[in-house]
Write a structure and sequence with these properties.
This protein is an alpha/beta fold. The protein has helices spanning 12-21, 43-59, 70-83, 93-104, 115-120, 122-130, 144-149, 156-171, 188-195, 204-218, 238-249; strands at residues 2-6, 27-31, 64-67, 89-90, 109-113, 136-140, 176-180, 200-202, 231-234, 257-258. Helix 1 crosses helix 10 (204-218), helix 2 crosses helix 3 (70-83) and helix 8 packs across helix 9 (188-195). The structure holds D-glutamic acid.
Length: 272
């Protein structure tokens, strides 16, 4: 069982890639949609949510956990890895940075992300670990997550917001743009049309899925037959998650268990 979580629907863009690449694996997905959007919340609060959710997924039996959320990956990956040293825990930021460096050439790399991820500087740090001279231009996109969560990913508002957010990156000479929030692949059409044909769009989910595959094999954890259906849970609106989630995931989500995050773990996990 692979635990995957996000603040809401966004992580389904990662879950979809994992399901496609490793069809024998069972996924247990948690959407913390009682607290979405994460992007405008204090970073400490998000770290607390992410630790609680990781603990919950491990309690449920996850052999590995994918933080399919850039915010959580930015502020809680190391804390979670320290707290649960026996379970491989992956984020999406390092894979995203690696993928972008691989294609960016000499031009600066643009990052579209939530305000919190921009504030954390996590992409810049990760990119600079690989190339300390690389120019990184970040753009916070506060309108994007609410547009996706309310089912307006394919709207004129989404197109207008994408034009506003992408223009400064193009203006700075970026030829590569990282989708630095897992909700953004669902806005890909609007982002691509704002960016134009010559811009390379990097979805960190692709590299994250490959990294996950390596871990599963190296640690001898890969499933050899699927014997259980995927499990979905949410802390907020379960019916809305099932309806929109089925569209985004491209497969029917017929049951969503409601789990209140405060009750998600038997022993509450607090940040020191
Ligand atoms: N999808 C998440 C991310 O990648 C969180 C977005 C949000 O809730 O603001 O950052």
């Amino acid at each position: 069982m692979i635990g995957v979580f996000d603040s809401g629907l966004g992580g389904l863009s990662v879950a979809a890639k994992i399901m496609e690449a490793y069809p024998k694996e069972q996924i247990v997905y948690f959407a913390d949609n009682a607290h979405v959007p994460y992007g405008e919340r204090p970073l400490d609060e998000i770290r607390g949510f992410a630790l609680d959710i990781t603990a919950h997924l491990i309690t449920k039996g996850a052999k590995t956990v994918v933080m399919a959320c850039n915010m959580s990956s930015a502020v809680a990956l190391e804390a979670s890895q320290n707290r649960f040293p026996d379970v491989p825990i992956l984020g999406v930021i390092e894979p995203g940075a690696k993928a972008a460096i691989g294609v960016a050439g000499e031009a600066p790399i643009g990052v579209l992300a939530t305000s919190g991820t921009v504030k954390s500087g996590a992409y810049e740090k990760s990119i600079h670990k690989l190339d300390s001279q690389k120019k990184v231009i970040q753009q916070a996109c506060p309108e994007f997550v609410p547009l996706v969560e309310s089912g307006r990913a394919d709207s004129e508002e989404a197109e207008a917001a994408a034009r506003d957010y992408v223009a400064p990156l193009i203006g700075e000479g970026c030829r590569t743009i990282i989708l630095g929030c897992t909700h953004y692949p669902f806005l890909r059409r609007a982002i691509e049309s704002a960016a134009g044909r010559d811009i390379i769009i990097v979805d960190p989910a692709v590299e994250t899925t490959q990294t996950l595959g390596k871990i599963l094999v190296e640690q001898g954890m890969a499933a050899y037959r699927l014997d259980a259906p995927h499990v979905f849970s949410a802390s907020g609106d379960t019916a809305g998650f099932a309806a929109l989630g089925s569209i985004f995931l491209g497969r029917t989500i017929d049951k969503v268990e409601k789990i209140t995050i405060a009750h998600a773990v038997e022993t509450a996990v607090k940040i020191e």
